[in-house]
Specification:
- By secondary structure, the protein is an alpha+beta fold.
- It has 12 helices and 21 strands.
- The chain has helices at residues 3-34, 57-63, 115-126, 164-168, 252-255, 287-295, 299-307, 336-345, 362-377, 389-394, 429-440, 444-460, and strands spanning 37-42, 72-74, 80-82, 85-90, 96-101, 142-149, 152-157, 194-200, 204-209, 223-228, 244-245, 262-267, 272-277, 311-313, 352-358, 380-386, 403-408, 465-470, 472-477, 480-481, 498-499.
- The strands form 5 sheets. A 7-stranded mixed β-sheet has the order 8-9-10-1-11-19-12, with no helix packed on it. It has a 6-stranded mixed β-sheet with strand order 14-18-13-17-15-16. Strands 4-5-7-6 form a 4-stranded antiparallel β-sheet, with helices on one face.
- The longest helix has 32 residues, at 3-34.
- The two termini are 50 Å apart.
């Protein structure tokens, strides 16, 4: 071999070695960064990061269990386990709950968590102007909060509540830092394994691992990013960096992306999707008009066209996954002829015209079109109004609407119908009496009977046109372990996630 050939060969080998080195470096750097973070794709951007004062479920999806914690944790199977409380005792009359608090807990600023923080958070939630969505069903029932020592909290209830521990595990019952609670909507300071790094409005929320967490060694992820991907819903090019598309798998566009890198997780939830009706607004204040709307909807067709069959028809505000569920989907069978007759009985002349406000979620936008077509076949013309999520919260959720299609994800939330100021505008003393009797019932059989009566009363009054209980379908990158399949509440427990 000549010197020229030798030098040429050495240069070629050197180039190959350099390329191999760079490729190896890239390979090592890529998985190393990917293996300590996760990127979620969620449809709605929270309007706040304080679940104790904001109603949207998207708030809890980001911060619950991650930044902010409560006394109790709800597990994937619906059971309740200790979290900030290490144990509790319940009195014989089930009206006194004594919680022993963990002693190894600190807030993200280093301040100790204690009974005073619990008392402050709960009294803040009890305030009439708190905006806490669990005020009616949870906090109004707390007669007194005692703190005999820094590590003990005693809740004295006005009446028994067998669901109390479960309610304390939901996001509206998280504990805020008393010194920074008023800034929690944008700067939450909690006790969880992650803290807020930044919120890029309209794009993403980034959480980073907090090294001062009491069990930091067990938390594998260093970072979690929640991307708002609603703008990609109708696109064939979804962001490739997203590891988890939460509750997106019913979109056919995602099926085209499923390959060796992704898997679909399908499970149950406590969600109830409904065509909400403004019971204050004429002619929706007429029972016969509301009943006509319920008869005009073919729930099976909605489930087939919107969810590709992944859902169960329902006829009241209760999910099949919850104890005591009563199947009432047949209370208003699909019957456009009956719907027209009811409208005539109500004095509706010609065709009725109503406005349907749709928030920017796939189920609402897709479902709204199907429902509008079905109502039109029964003599009800629908004007569809597409609104942003903030506009929905400031409009429909404040009672400024005629009809809207929305998914209520909170479990055991039939109590919302006891509040006449709630956005449905349902004001019925008989219903409130049923709920009160259920609260005070001691005998389990009596409680079950009253729970069935509660569901029947809502259905008989056709407060809303309930559509279905959806399954939760999530597309996740293979190798990510610890994701929930079933969602009794909408939460993403980042501390449980790890890459295989």
């Amino acid at each position: 071999m000549s010197k020229t050939d030798w030098r040429s060969t050495m240069r070629m080998i050197a180039r190959y070695l350099l390329i191999a080195h760079l490729m190896a470096g890239a390979w090592l750097a890529g998985p190393a960064s990917a293996r300590d973070q996760v990127v979620f794709g969620i449809t709605l951007e929270p309007n706040s990061l304080d679940p104790t004062s904001a109603p949207a479920a998207a708030v809890g999806e980001v911060v619950h269990y991650n930044v902010l914690e409560g006394l109790v944790k709800i597990e994937e199977n619906g059971s309740t386990t200790p979290l900030l409380a290490e144990s509790w005792e319940i009195s014989a009359d089930a009206r006194h709950y004594s919680f022993r608090l963990r002693r190894d807990v600190r807030f993200h600023d280093g301040q100790a968590f204690d009974a005073a923080a619990v008392k402050y958070s709960f009294e803040r939630a009890k305030a009439p102007d708190s905006g806490n969505k669990s005020r009616t069903k949870l906090f109004d029932n707390i007669e007194r909060i005692d703190t005999p020592d820094p590590h003990t909290v005693v809740l004295v209830l006005r009446h028994r509540d067998p669901h109390l521990l479960y309610r304390l595990g939901e996001s509206p019952a998280v504990i805020l830092h008393p010194a920074s609670a008023e800034r929690a909507s944008t700067e939450p300071v909690g006790t969880g394994p992650f803290r807020l790094e930044r919120w890029d409005k309209g794009h993403a929320i980034t959480l980073v691992k907090w090294p001062g967490y009491r069990d930091a060694a067990s938390v594998q992820l260093q970072r979690a990013v929640f991307r708002f991907v609603n703008s990609f819903v109708d696109s064939t090019e979804l962001p490739p960096e997203v590891d988890v598309f939460f509750n997106f798998a019913t979109k056919s566009v995602l099926r085209n992306r499923l390959n060796e890198r992704y898997q679909v997780l399908t499970g149950g939830s406590s969600s109830k999707t409904l065509l909400a009706l403004n019971n204050r607004h004429p002619p929706l204040d007429d029972l016969r008009v509301r009943q006509a709307i319920s008869h005009a909807i073919d729930r099976a067709a909605v489930i087939h066209q919107v969810l590709e069959g992944r859902g169960d028809p329902i006829g009241s505000h209760y999910s099949p996954t919850e104890d005591g569920y009563l199947h009432l989907a047949d209370r208003y069978p699909y019957d456009p002829v009956r719907a027209r007759a009811l409208l005539a009985e109500a004095g509706v002349e010609g065709r009725l015209r109503l406005k349907l406000s749709l928030p920017p979620t796939p189920y609402a936008r897709d479902g709204g079109k199907v429902v509008a077509q079905q109502l039109a076949a029964a003599g009800i013309d629908v004007d569809i109004e597409l609104v942003s999520w903030p506009d929905w919260l400031n409009g429909a959720f404040q009672g400024r609407f005629e009809m809207t299609l929305i998914n209520h994800v909170e479990p055991l939330d039939y109590d919302i119908y006891t509040d006449p100021s709630y956005y449905f505008g349902y004001d019925n003393a008989d219903f409130r009496a049923l709920v009160e009797a259920h609260r005070n019932a001691v005998n389990p059989r009596q409680r079950n009977r009253l729970l069935a009566d509660i569901q029947r009363k809502l259905a008989d009054d056709a407060v809303n046109a309930w559509l279905y209980a959806p399954q939760v379908s999530t597309v996740a990158r293979k190798g990510l372990e610890g994701l929930w399949v079933n969602y009794p509440i909408y939460v993403h427990d980042l501390a449980a996630l790890r890459w295989r």
